[in-house]
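Reminder: ligand-aware prediction takes two inputs, not one.
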Amino acid sequence: MLARQLINGVRSKNLCLSQRFQSTLVIAEHDNEKLTPVTLNTVTAANKIGGDVSLLVTGTNCAKVVEEASKISGVSKILLADNEAFKGFLPEAITPLVLSTQKQFSFSHILAGATAFGKGLLPRVAAKLDVSPVSDIIEVKTADTFVRTIYAGNAIQTVKSNDTVKVVSVRGTAFEAADTTGGSASTEDAPAPSDENTLSSFVGQELSKSDRPELTSAKAVISGGRGMKNGENFKMLYDLADKMNAAVGASRAAVDAGFVPNDMQVGQTGKIVAPDLYVAVGISGAIQHLAGMKDSKVIVAINKDPEAPIFQVADYGLVADLFKAIPEMDAAVSS
Ligand SMILES: Cc1cc2nc3c(=O)[nH]c(=O)nc-3n(C[C@H](O)[C@H](O)[C@H](O)COP(=O)(O)OP(=O)(O)OC[C@H]3O[C@@H](n4cnc5c(N)ncnc54)[C@H](O)[C@@H]3O)c2cc1C
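Here is what comes back for the chain with flavin-adenine dinucleotide:
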C-alpha cells in the first residue's frame, strides 16, 4: 500500500515536473478583426499539454485581435507581429517569424489549428526545424503522446513524438473552446523574422460573405449533396438554415458539380464539423463525407434510397424525396 502511494507520488511529481518544463506556442488564426474559433480549441489542447502557453498573433492592423486574445484564460503571453509583411497571412511570410520566435524562446511545442491556415504553415515550420509534424490530433495523452485519426477516420492512432520540438496541428472539434474571459496575458513584440519572404506576395482575395454561422463552429449544419440536383435548389437549404440559425455545407459531389463553392465542402478533404445537429440532405454517406461529420451529436438523414449508407450513422432517418421533405420541414419550422 505504502509502496503504491510512493510510486503514485513519484509519478505525479514526474508529471508535474514534465508539465513545468513544457512551454507551448499557439499560432493564432484570425482575420485582423476577430480570432477564428479554432484558436480557442487549440489553446485548450495546449493547456492539456501543460506548462506556459504563449500566443503568436501575426497580422496587419490586428489590435482588436490582441485585445480579444489577452483575455483568453490559460494564455500567459502574447507575441505580436503586426506588420504589412503579414498581409494575407502567407505561410511563406509567417514561417520565418515562427522560426525566429522558436529560436528565442525554445518552446517545447508549436501548435496551430488543423485548418487551411495551419496546414499551410506547420509542415513548413516542421521541415525547417527538421522534425516530424503530428497532424490533426484529437486528444493529448501526455506531453509527447497524441491521438489522431487515420484512414479517413476509420482508425485511431496513438503517436509518441521523440522530437525535441513537437509541431502539432489540432482538430478544433475535438477540444472545448478556451474561456474568452478571465485571462490577463501580457503582450510583447515578437522577434524579427529569421528571413525575408521573397518567394511570394499577397495580391488579393475574394472572400465569400455570409451572415450565417461559420461552418466549423455552427451549432447546427444542413448539408446538401448531389441529390439537390443543382445550385438553385440549395436556396431551399439556405432558407431553412436561416430559420434554424444553421450553417450550410455540402458533399464533394455537390461542390465538384459546381452547385456551391468549395469552402462549403464537408469531409476528409473539406471541413471537419461536429455540431449539435447535422442534417444530411440527398447525401449518400460515403466514408470520405462521414470523416467530416460523424462526430456530430445528432445526425438526421433525408434520402430517398433506404439503402443509403448515411442511414447507418444517422440518429434519425427519413426515407423521402427531399423536394417534398424540405418544404415540409421549412413550413414546420416557420409555424
Ligand atoms: C480522396 C477522396 C476524398 C474525398 N473527399 C470528400 C469530402 O471531403 N467530402 C465528401 O463529401 N466527399 C468526398 N469524396 C467523395 C465521396 O467519395 C463521394 O463521392 C461523395 O461524398 C458523394 O457525394 P453525395 O453523397 O452528394 O453524392 P452521391 O453519392 O451521388 O449521393 C447522392 C444521394 O442523393 C440521394 N438522392 C438523390 N435524389 C434525391 C431526392 N430527390 N431526394 C432524396 N435523396 C435523393 C441518392 O439516393 C444518393 O444517396 C472524396 C473522395 C475521394 C476519393
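The longest helix spans residues 2-20. The chain has a mean pLDDT of 93. We will return to this case in the review session.
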